[in-house]
Amino acid sequence: MFHEVKIFDKKGKVKKVLSSKKLSNEYWNSFFNNPLSEAMAKKKGRPKKPQKNVDCDDENLDSSN
Predict the structure, then answer these.
(1) Exposed site from 4, 24, 39, 59, fewest CB < 10 Å?
(2) Rounded to whole angstroms, what are the CA distances from 21 to 2, 6, 63?
(3) How far apart are CA 36 and CA 41, in angstroms?
(4) Opening angle at CA 12, ends 8 and 17, nearest 5
(5) Residue bearing the bigger pLDDT, 56 or 1
(6) pTM
(7) What is the rounded CA–CA span in Å between residue 19 and residue 61?
(8) Phi and psi angles of residue 41, each rounded to the nearest 5 degrees, phi first
């Protein structure tokens, strides 16, 4: 929820009034057009390293080595 915002000039007169609806629309438009949100949607970033398969069979667990 956004409250109405009034912008004043140096003399104290109202220069501009931004309605709560306009502020809300601008916020949500910038939220969905944010490059970070696009990157998250496309799942950009570092590729995951493949995990090495460690052979943990009982045959390879010889304690005499």
Answers:
(1) 59
(2) 8, 14, 71
(3) 9
(4) 30
(5) 1
(6) 0.46
(7) 71
(8) -70, -35
Contacts of 56 by beta carbon, 8 Å cutoff, 6+ apart? none
Helix (DSSP H) and strand (DSSP E) numbers for the chain: 2, 2
* Domain definitions of the chain by residue range: 1-45
pLDDT digits (tens, 9 = 90+) for 16-64: 999 999 999 998 888 878 776 655 666 656 767 777 766 666 666 656 6
Q: Which residue bears the tokens 């949100």?
A: 37
Q: What pLDDT is attached to residue 50?
A: 75
